[in-house]
Amino acid sequence: MKILEGIRVLDCSIAMAGPFAAQRMGDMGADVIKVEPTSGEWQRHASAGGATGNKINVSFLSLNRNKRSLAVDLKAPEGKAILIDMVREADVFLQNYRPGVAERLGVDYETLSAINPRLIYISMSGYGEDGPYKDLPGQDLLLQGMSGAMMSTGSAGAPPSAAGQYLVDAIAAYSAFEGALAALFHRERTGEGQLVQVNMLDAIATIQMQELSVFSVGGKPQARSAEPHAHSYIRAPYGVFATSDGYITVAMASLAKLEQLFEDEFFAGLSDETDGWIRRDEIFARVKGHLLKKSSAEWLAEMRARDIWAGPVYGYEDLINDPQIKHNGTFIEYDHPTEGHLKVPGFPIRFSRTPCAVERGAPLVGEHSREVMKEAGMSDDAIDALIESGVVRQHA
Question: Where does the chain cross the membrane (predicted)?
Fold first, then answer.
Protein backbone atom coordinates (compact mmCIF):
# COMPACT_ATOMS: atom_id res chain seq x y z
CA MET A 1 0.00 0.00 0.00
CA LYS A 2 1.34 3.45 -0.91
CA ILE A 3 1.15 6.41 1.44
CA LEU A 4 -1.65 8.24 -0.44
CA GLU A 5 -3.47 5.17 -1.70
CA GLY A 6 -7.22 5.70 -1.45
CA ILE A 7 -6.94 9.45 -2.06
CA ARG A 8 -8.57 10.66 -5.27
CA VAL A 9 -7.29 13.86 -6.88
CA LEU A 10 -9.09 15.73 -9.64
CA ASP A 11 -6.34 17.59 -11.50
CA CYS A 12 -7.86 20.42 -13.54
CA SER A 13 -4.56 22.30 -13.88
CA ILE A 14 -2.40 23.12 -16.90
CA ALA A 15 1.23 23.95 -17.73
CA MET A 16 3.82 23.04 -15.04
CA ALA A 17 3.09 24.11 -11.48
CA GLY A 18 -0.32 22.45 -11.02
CA PRO A 19 0.43 19.24 -12.95
CA PHE A 20 3.76 18.84 -11.12
CA ALA A 21 2.02 19.13 -7.73
CA ALA A 22 -0.57 16.55 -8.77
CA GLN A 23 2.12 14.22 -10.11
CA ARG A 24 3.82 14.21 -6.71
CA MET A 25 0.56 13.00 -5.19
CA GLY A 26 0.26 10.36 -7.91
CA ASP A 27 3.80 9.16 -7.22
CA MET A 28 2.73 8.53 -3.63
CA GLY A 29 -0.22 6.41 -4.66
CA ALA A 30 -3.11 8.85 -5.07
CA ASP A 31 -5.55 8.15 -7.89
CA VAL A 32 -5.00 11.29 -9.96
CA ILE A 33 -7.52 11.94 -12.70
CA LYS A 34 -6.36 14.55 -15.17
CA VAL A 35 -9.48 16.38 -16.27
CA GLU A 36 -8.55 18.00 -19.59
CA PRO A 37 -10.29 19.44 -22.65
CA THR A 38 -11.19 17.05 -25.46
CA SER A 39 -8.41 18.69 -27.51
CA GLY A 40 -5.91 17.89 -24.75
CA GLU A 41 -4.26 20.04 -22.07
CA TRP A 42 -2.22 23.07 -23.26
CA GLN A 43 1.11 21.49 -22.31
CA ARG A 44 0.49 18.64 -24.79
CA HIS A 45 0.85 21.21 -27.58
CA ALA A 46 3.76 23.28 -26.18
CA SER A 47 6.95 21.22 -26.31
CA ALA A 48 9.79 22.42 -24.10
CA GLY A 49 13.09 22.41 -25.98
CA GLY A 50 11.32 21.23 -29.14
CA ALA A 51 11.18 17.64 -27.78
CA THR A 52 7.93 16.54 -29.38
CA GLY A 53 8.00 12.80 -28.65
CA ASN A 54 5.94 10.24 -30.57
CA LYS A 55 2.36 10.86 -29.42
CA ILE A 56 3.15 12.74 -26.17
CA ASN A 57 5.71 15.52 -26.03
CA VAL A 58 8.43 15.23 -23.42
CA SER A 59 7.30 18.29 -21.47
CA PHE A 60 3.84 16.81 -20.87
CA LEU A 61 5.32 13.37 -20.29
CA SER A 62 7.53 14.69 -17.50
CA LEU A 63 4.67 16.27 -15.54
CA ASN A 64 1.83 13.78 -15.87
CA ARG A 65 2.90 10.25 -14.97
CA ASN A 66 0.74 8.25 -12.56
CA LYS A 67 -2.44 9.92 -13.81
CA ARG A 68 -5.51 8.87 -15.77
CA SER A 69 -6.95 11.15 -18.43
CA LEU A 70 -10.60 12.13 -18.60
CA ALA A 71 -11.10 14.33 -21.67
CA VAL A 72 -14.34 16.29 -21.27
CA ASP A 73 -15.85 19.60 -22.35
CA LEU A 74 -16.62 21.39 -19.07
CA LYS A 75 -18.43 24.19 -20.91
CA ALA A 76 -21.12 21.70 -21.95
CA PRO A 77 -23.76 21.06 -19.24
CA GLU A 78 -23.32 17.30 -19.66
CA GLY A 79 -19.56 17.64 -19.23
CA LYS A 80 -19.84 19.76 -16.12
CA ALA A 81 -22.31 17.22 -14.67
CA ILE A 82 -19.67 14.48 -15.00
CA LEU A 83 -17.16 16.54 -13.02
CA ILE A 84 -19.72 17.43 -10.35
CA ASP A 85 -20.54 13.75 -9.86
CA MET A 86 -16.85 12.99 -9.41
CA VAL A 87 -16.43 15.81 -6.90
CA ARG A 88 -18.86 14.04 -4.56
CA GLU A 89 -16.31 11.26 -3.97
CA ALA A 90 -13.06 13.21 -4.50
CA ASP A 91 -10.55 14.13 -1.81
CA VAL A 92 -8.55 16.86 -3.59
CA PHE A 93 -9.54 19.25 -6.37
CA LEU A 94 -6.64 21.14 -7.96
CA GLN A 95 -6.97 24.02 -10.41
CA ASN A 96 -4.83 26.90 -11.65
CA TYR A 97 -7.39 28.72 -13.77
CA ARG A 98 -7.03 32.46 -14.15
CA PRO A 99 -9.01 34.33 -11.45
CA GLY A 100 -12.73 34.25 -12.23
CA VAL A 101 -12.66 31.23 -14.55
CA ALA A 102 -13.58 28.70 -11.84
CA GLU A 103 -16.62 30.77 -10.94
CA ARG A 104 -17.71 31.03 -14.59
CA LEU A 105 -17.38 27.26 -14.98
CA GLY A 106 -19.26 26.66 -11.73
CA VAL A 107 -16.34 24.78 -10.13
CA ASP A 108 -15.29 27.37 -7.56
CA TYR A 109 -14.65 26.44 -3.93
CA GLU A 110 -18.01 27.63 -2.61
CA THR A 111 -19.89 25.55 -5.16
CA LEU A 112 -17.85 22.36 -4.80
CA SER A 113 -17.49 22.49 -1.01
CA ALA A 114 -21.28 22.69 -0.73
CA ILE A 115 -21.42 19.41 -2.66
CA ASN A 116 -18.57 17.79 -0.72
CA PRO A 117 -17.65 19.50 2.59
CA ARG A 118 -14.67 17.15 3.01
CA LEU A 119 -13.06 18.36 -0.23
CA ILE A 120 -9.55 19.84 -0.17
CA TYR A 121 -9.67 22.55 -2.84
CA ILE A 122 -6.25 23.74 -4.08
CA SER A 123 -6.40 27.01 -6.00
CA MET A 124 -3.16 28.16 -7.66
CA SER A 125 -2.57 31.55 -9.26
CA GLY A 126 0.24 33.75 -10.48
CA TYR A 127 -0.08 36.71 -8.13
CA GLY A 128 -3.06 35.97 -5.90
CA GLU A 129 -6.81 35.55 -6.23
CA ASP A 130 -7.40 39.29 -6.05
CA GLY A 131 -5.44 42.53 -5.98
CA PRO A 132 -3.95 44.78 -8.68
CA TYR A 133 -2.01 42.01 -10.47
CA LYS A 134 -4.61 39.25 -10.35
CA ASP A 135 -5.20 39.29 -14.12
CA LEU A 136 -1.53 39.41 -15.16
CA PRO A 137 0.05 36.27 -16.68
CA GLY A 138 1.77 34.17 -14.04
CA GLN A 139 4.74 32.96 -16.07
CA ASP A 140 7.96 31.67 -14.49
CA LEU A 141 10.45 34.16 -15.95
CA LEU A 142 8.19 37.12 -15.22
CA LEU A 143 7.96 36.05 -11.57
CA GLN A 144 11.71 35.42 -11.36
CA GLY A 145 12.33 38.97 -12.50
CA MET A 146 9.81 40.36 -10.03
CA SER A 147 11.11 38.29 -7.10
CA GLY A 148 14.31 40.27 -6.58
CA ALA A 149 16.38 37.09 -6.80
CA MET A 150 18.06 38.06 -10.07
CA MET A 151 19.70 41.02 -8.34
CA SER A 152 21.37 38.79 -5.74
CA THR A 153 23.77 37.17 -8.21
CA GLY A 154 26.25 38.17 -10.88
CA SER A 155 28.26 41.36 -11.15
CA ALA A 156 27.28 45.00 -10.82
CA GLY A 157 26.50 46.52 -14.19
CA ALA A 158 25.85 43.15 -15.82
CA PRO A 159 22.29 42.22 -16.83
CA PRO A 160 20.28 40.27 -14.25
CA SER A 161 20.45 36.54 -14.89
CA ALA A 162 17.58 34.04 -14.72
CA ALA A 163 17.86 30.63 -13.07
CA GLY A 164 18.49 27.69 -15.38
CA GLN A 165 15.33 25.97 -14.17
CA TYR A 166 11.61 26.77 -14.17
CA LEU A 167 12.25 27.80 -10.61
CA VAL A 168 9.04 29.61 -9.66
CA ASP A 169 6.85 26.90 -11.19
CA ALA A 170 8.68 24.22 -9.21
CA ILE A 171 8.52 26.13 -5.92
CA ALA A 172 4.82 26.85 -6.41
CA ALA A 173 4.22 23.16 -7.20
CA TYR A 174 5.89 22.04 -4.00
CA SER A 175 3.97 24.67 -2.02
CA ALA A 176 0.68 23.31 -3.40
CA PHE A 177 1.77 19.74 -2.71
CA GLU A 178 2.71 20.65 0.87
CA GLY A 179 -0.59 22.47 1.33
CA ALA A 180 -2.58 19.49 0.06
CA LEU A 181 -0.85 17.10 2.46
CA ALA A 182 -1.31 19.45 5.42
CA ALA A 183 -5.01 19.94 4.62
CA LEU A 184 -5.51 16.17 4.30
CA PHE A 185 -3.88 15.73 7.71
CA HIS A 186 -6.22 18.35 9.19
CA ARG A 187 -9.17 16.52 7.65
CA GLU A 188 -8.06 13.26 9.26
CA ARG A 189 -8.26 15.01 12.62
CA THR A 190 -11.46 16.99 12.11
CA GLY A 191 -13.32 15.71 9.05
CA GLU A 192 -13.23 19.21 7.56
CA GLY A 193 -12.23 20.06 4.04
CA GLN A 194 -10.93 23.52 3.19
CA LEU A 195 -9.69 25.95 0.57
CA VAL A 196 -5.90 26.09 0.08
CA GLN A 197 -4.58 29.00 -1.97
CA VAL A 198 -1.06 29.16 -3.41
CA ASN A 199 0.34 31.86 -5.64
CA MET A 200 3.65 31.96 -7.46
CA LEU A 201 4.64 35.44 -6.27
CA ASP A 202 4.36 34.55 -2.58
CA ALA A 203 6.08 31.20 -3.17
CA ILE A 204 9.21 32.73 -4.74
CA ALA A 205 9.26 35.58 -2.20
CA THR A 206 8.98 33.44 0.94
CA ILE A 207 11.61 30.94 -0.18
CA GLN A 208 14.06 33.86 0.07
CA MET A 209 13.49 33.92 3.82
CA GLN A 210 17.11 34.56 4.73
CA GLU A 211 17.91 37.09 2.03
CA LEU A 212 14.81 39.22 2.53
CA SER A 213 15.22 39.13 6.31
CA VAL A 214 18.83 40.29 6.01
CA PHE A 215 17.48 43.22 3.98
CA SER A 216 14.31 44.03 5.95
CA VAL A 217 15.54 43.25 9.48
CA GLY A 218 19.31 43.54 9.19
CA GLY A 219 19.19 46.61 6.98
CA LYS A 220 21.87 45.30 4.62
CA PRO A 221 21.49 46.55 1.03
CA GLN A 222 21.29 44.09 -1.85
CA ALA A 223 24.53 45.19 -3.54
CA ARG A 224 26.17 43.24 -6.33
CA SER A 225 29.98 43.33 -6.61
CA ALA A 226 32.04 44.30 -9.64
CA GLU A 227 33.18 40.67 -9.91
CA PRO A 228 30.49 38.08 -10.73
CA HIS A 229 29.88 37.04 -7.14
CA ALA A 230 27.27 34.27 -6.76
CA HIS A 231 25.23 35.89 -3.99
CA SER A 232 25.08 39.45 -2.71
CA TYR A 233 24.73 38.31 0.92
CA ILE A 234 27.62 35.82 1.05
CA ARG A 235 31.27 36.72 1.70
CA ALA A 236 34.09 36.11 -0.77
CA PRO A 237 35.13 33.89 -2.35
CA TYR A 238 31.74 32.62 -3.51
CA GLY A 239 30.98 31.84 -7.12
CA VAL A 240 31.87 30.04 -10.32
CA PHE A 241 35.52 30.19 -11.38
CA ALA A 242 37.21 29.20 -14.63
CA THR A 243 40.07 26.69 -14.51
CA SER A 244 42.48 25.67 -17.23
CA ASP A 245 39.94 23.22 -18.67
CA GLY A 246 36.49 24.15 -17.33
CA TYR A 247 34.77 25.58 -14.27
CA ILE A 248 34.43 24.85 -10.56
CA THR A 249 32.43 26.39 -7.73
CA VAL A 250 34.08 27.70 -4.57
CA ALA A 251 32.00 28.54 -1.52
CA MET A 252 33.11 30.64 1.46
CA ALA A 253 36.65 29.25 1.59
CA SER A 254 38.80 30.09 4.60
CA LEU A 255 41.19 32.86 3.51
CA ALA A 256 43.93 31.33 5.64
CA LYS A 257 43.52 28.04 3.79
CA LEU A 258 43.65 29.87 0.47
CA GLU A 259 46.96 31.40 1.51
CA GLN A 260 48.34 27.89 1.98
CA LEU A 261 46.73 26.53 -1.17
CA PHE A 262 47.97 29.28 -3.47
CA GLU A 263 51.14 30.11 -1.50
CA ASP A 264 50.08 33.73 -1.82
CA GLU A 265 50.82 36.26 0.94
CA PHE A 266 47.96 38.46 -0.29
CA PHE A 267 45.64 36.37 1.90
CA ALA A 268 47.85 36.55 5.00
CA GLY A 269 46.09 38.04 7.96
CA LEU A 270 42.82 38.62 6.13
CA SER A 271 39.67 38.10 8.21
CA ASP A 272 36.94 35.90 6.74
CA GLU A 273 34.17 37.88 8.43
CA THR A 274 35.58 41.35 7.81
CA ASP A 275 37.75 41.34 4.71
CA GLY A 276 35.57 38.69 3.13
CA TRP A 277 32.92 41.42 2.84
CA ILE A 278 34.71 44.72 2.43
CA ARG A 279 37.39 43.37 0.02
CA ARG A 280 35.09 41.04 -1.87
CA ASP A 281 36.11 42.11 -5.37
CA GLU A 282 39.84 41.94 -4.61
CA ILE A 283 39.57 38.45 -3.14
CA PHE A 284 37.40 37.21 -6.00
CA ALA A 285 39.83 38.53 -8.61
CA ARG A 286 42.83 37.02 -6.82
CA VAL A 287 41.21 33.60 -6.58
CA LYS A 288 40.12 33.84 -10.22
CA GLY A 289 43.71 34.43 -11.34
CA HIS A 290 45.11 31.48 -9.42
CA LEU A 291 42.48 28.97 -10.54
CA LEU A 292 43.30 29.45 -14.22
CA LYS A 293 46.67 27.74 -13.63
CA LYS A 294 45.43 24.14 -13.15
CA SER A 295 42.63 21.82 -14.26
CA SER A 296 39.31 21.41 -12.47
CA ALA A 297 40.20 17.92 -11.29
CA GLU A 298 43.52 19.09 -9.86
CA TRP A 299 41.98 21.98 -7.96
CA LEU A 300 39.12 19.89 -6.60
CA ALA A 301 41.54 17.26 -5.31
CA GLU A 302 43.73 19.86 -3.62
CA MET A 303 40.82 21.78 -2.14
CA ARG A 304 39.06 18.72 -0.77
CA ALA A 305 42.32 17.60 0.82
CA ARG A 306 42.39 20.96 2.68
CA ASP A 307 38.65 20.92 3.51
CA ILE A 308 37.95 23.87 1.22
CA TRP A 309 34.38 23.80 -0.04
CA ALA A 310 34.47 23.36 -3.80
CA GLY A 311 32.67 21.34 -6.44
CA PRO A 312 32.36 20.68 -10.17
CA VAL A 313 30.16 22.55 -12.59
CA TYR A 314 28.08 19.96 -14.45
CA GLY A 315 26.06 19.78 -17.59
CA TYR A 316 23.21 17.28 -17.74
CA GLU A 317 25.33 14.45 -19.15
CA ASP A 318 27.76 14.86 -16.25
CA LEU A 319 24.90 14.90 -13.76
CA ILE A 320 23.26 11.73 -15.07
CA ASN A 321 26.59 9.87 -14.99
CA ASP A 322 27.68 11.08 -11.55
CA PRO A 323 28.42 8.16 -9.18
CA GLN A 324 26.36 9.63 -6.32
CA ILE A 325 23.39 10.15 -8.63
CA LYS A 326 23.68 6.52 -9.73
CA HIS A 327 24.04 5.34 -6.13
CA ASN A 328 20.95 7.30 -5.07
CA GLY A 329 18.85 5.97 -7.93
CA THR A 330 17.92 9.57 -8.74
CA PHE A 331 16.87 8.60 -12.26
CA ILE A 332 14.36 5.84 -12.91
CA GLU A 333 13.65 3.84 -16.05
CA TYR A 334 10.36 2.46 -17.32
CA ASP A 335 8.55 1.63 -20.55
CA HIS A 336 5.80 3.84 -21.95
CA PRO A 337 3.34 2.33 -24.49
CA THR A 338 3.88 5.07 -27.10
CA GLU A 339 7.13 6.80 -26.09
CA GLY A 340 9.26 3.71 -25.53
CA HIS A 341 11.91 3.18 -22.86
CA LEU A 342 12.33 6.27 -20.67
CA LYS A 343 15.02 7.40 -18.26
CA VAL A 344 13.77 10.33 -16.19
CA PRO A 345 14.11 11.94 -12.74
CA GLY A 346 12.45 9.80 -10.10
CA PHE A 347 11.21 10.45 -6.58
CA PRO A 348 12.86 12.96 -4.22
CA ILE A 349 11.09 11.57 -1.13
CA ARG A 350 11.77 8.04 0.05
CA PHE A 351 9.43 6.10 2.31
CA SER A 352 10.64 2.91 3.99
CA ARG A 353 7.20 1.28 4.05
CA THR A 354 5.32 3.04 1.27
CA PRO A 355 7.74 3.64 -1.63
CA CYS A 356 6.77 5.64 -4.69
CA ALA A 357 6.54 3.91 -8.07
CA VAL A 358 5.51 4.57 -11.65
CA GLU A 359 2.25 2.69 -12.10
CA ARG A 360 1.46 4.33 -15.42
CA GLY A 361 3.14 6.83 -17.71
CA ALA A 362 1.59 10.09 -18.84
CA PRO A 363 -1.80 9.30 -20.45
CA LEU A 364 -2.99 9.93 -23.97
CA VAL A 365 -5.85 12.41 -24.31
CA GLY A 366 -8.98 10.78 -22.87
CA GLU A 367 -7.24 7.42 -22.48
CA HIS A 368 -9.22 6.65 -19.31
CA SER A 369 -12.43 8.58 -19.95
CA ARG A 370 -14.60 5.47 -20.16
CA GLU A 371 -13.25 3.72 -17.08
CA VAL A 372 -13.35 6.90 -14.97
CA MET A 373 -16.98 7.60 -15.88
CA LYS A 374 -17.92 3.95 -15.35
CA GLU A 375 -16.40 4.12 -11.86
CA ALA A 376 -18.56 7.21 -11.26
CA GLY A 377 -21.65 5.05 -11.88
CA MET A 378 -22.49 5.97 -15.47
CA SER A 379 -23.94 3.34 -17.79
CA ASP A 380 -22.24 2.22 -21.00
CA ASP A 381 -25.10 3.70 -23.05
CA ALA A 382 -24.77 7.09 -21.36
CA ILE A 383 -20.98 7.05 -21.84
CA ASP A 384 -21.36 6.09 -25.52
CA ALA A 385 -23.76 8.97 -26.05
CA LEU A 386 -21.38 11.49 -24.48
CA ILE A 387 -18.47 10.26 -26.58
CA GLU A 388 -20.54 10.32 -29.75
CA SER A 389 -21.71 13.89 -29.03
CA GLY A 390 -18.13 15.10 -28.56
CA VAL A 391 -18.66 16.21 -24.96
CA VAL A 392 -16.23 13.49 -23.88
CA ARG A 393 -13.25 12.16 -25.78
CA GLN A 394 -12.15 8.55 -25.44
CA HIS A 395 -8.82 7.72 -27.00
CA ALA A 396 -9.15 4.98 -29.59
Answer: none
Task: Tell me the whole-structure pTM to 2 decimals.
Answer: 0.91
Helix, strand, coil tally for the chain in percent (to 5): 40, 15, 45
Please report which confidence band the pLDDT of residue 48 belongs to, taking 50, 70 and 90 as the band edges.
confident
Whole-number Å distance between alpha carbons of 112 and 88:
8
Amino acid identity for residue 14 in this structure? I
* Cβ–Cβ < 8 Å for 264, 258: yes
Instruction: List the one residue out of 357, 368, 358 whose CA is nearest residue 394.
Output: 368
CATH superfamily of 8-206+354-393: Crotonobetainyl-coa:carnitine coa-transferase; domain 1 (3.40.50.10540)
Q: Are strands 392-393 and 67-72 parallel, antiparallel or unpaired?
A: antiparallel
Sequence-ordered strand ranges (E) for the chain: 8-11, 31-36, 67-72, 92-95, 120-125, 194-199, 238-242, 247-251, 310-312, 331-336, 340-345, 392-393
> How many C-beta neighbours within 10 Å does residue 63 have?
26
Q: Tell me the C-alpha distance between 151 and 160, whole Å.
A: 6
CA proximity to 179, closest of 325, 21, 2, 291: 21
Could you give the CA distance from residue 235 to residue 37 in angstroms, rounded to a whole number? 51
Q: In what order do the strands lie in the sheet with 67-72?
A: 194-199, 120-125, 92-95, 8-11, 31-36, 67-72, 392-393
List b or e across 362-392, with b for residues whose CB sees 16 or more CB atoms inside 10 angstroms: bbbbbbbbbebbeebebeeeebeebbeeebb
Q: Is residue 271 helix, strand or coil?
A: coil
Query: Tell me: the pLDDT tens digits for 277-311?
Result: 999 999 999 999 999 999 999 999 999 999 999 99
Query: Nearest to residue 199, comparing CAs of 137, 135, 129, 100?
Result: 129
Contact in structure between 276 and 283 (CB atoms under 8 Å): yes
pLDDT tens profile 370-384: 999 999 999 999 999
Domains of the chain, residue spans: 8-206+354-393, 238-242+247-312
Q: What do you get for the CA distance between the two ends of the chain, in Å?
A: 31
Q: Find all residues with CB under 8 Å of 310, minimum gap 6, and list them.
A: 248, 249, 250, 251, 253, 299, 300, 303, 304
CA-to-CA distance for 81 and 101, rounded, in angstroms? 17
Q: Is 198 exposed, middle or buried (0-12, 13-18, 19+ CB in 10 A)?
A: buried
Continuous segment of H or E residues that includes residue 208: none
